[in-house]
Amino acid sequence: MTTTKKELTQPILGTPNDTNTYHFMDEKVTILVSGEDTNGEFAVLNIKKLANQSPPPHIHSKEKEVFDVKRGTITFFVGNDVIKAKEGDVVVAPAGVKHTFVTGPEGAEFNVTAYPAGFDSFVKAVGIPVEADAPMPKLEPITEEQMIGLITAAKPFGISFPDIEKEMSKK
After folding, report:
1. Which of 23, 64, 133, 164 has its Cα between 20 and 30 A from that of 97?
2. Which H or E element spans position 147?
């Protein structure tokens, strides 16, 4: 069976609203353009993150990510490289390369464009829908049970957390 992808021919306006905004771990994420909008070609997400916060080091096996810093400073760790980015800077994390980042003391806001789409579906699967004007999520330490849930939920999306998975396999 062959499937035909419809070519993207119309403009898309991505606006935060009460149906595309999520609390995702310690982030407030708005899916401005989803994979459904682009036939899976890409997705654009706006992310707000509190000061001095970092996701666990992880690998996207399918997507490359383009980070466009809108506010604040972020130190990225991509493979063996350390990149200090500020407002207006763009950082690219290739698919298959372990990466993470740490927001600066003022917190940060950035857009992530994922090629192809997929990360947006992960956010929808794991995130908690909130209103567009919702405050930031409460900053609480993640439990081992929550981390196991995150790792399990991430696998179908080609996202892995090698350091955490290695440490958990020792238990």
Report:
1. 23
2. helix 144-154
Query: Which residue's structure tokens are 């980042």?
Result: 101
**pLDDT in the model for residue 6:** 65
Which stretch of DSSP H or E encloses residue 109?
A: strand 99-115
Whole-number Å distance between alpha carbons of 151 and 131 = 26
For residue 105, give every residue at least 6 positions away whose Cβ sits within 8 Å of its Cβ, in sequence order, or none. 51, 52
Tell me whether strands 81-86 and 64-78 are parallel, antiparallel or unpaired. Answer: antiparallel
Dihedral angle over CA of 150, 45, 61, 90, nearest 10:
-130
- Tell me the CA distances in angstroms from 61 to 3, 47, 97, 116, 155, one per residue in order: 24, 21, 8, 11, 10
Residues 10 and 28: their CA atoms lie apart, in Å, by 28
State pLDDT tens for residues 44-82.
999 999 999 999 999 999 999 999 999 999 999 999 999
Establish whether the linkage from the previous residue to 156 is cis, with ω within 30° of 0. no
Per-residue pLDDT tens over the stretch 8-26: 888 999 999 999 999 999 9
* pTM reported for the whole predicted model: 0.92
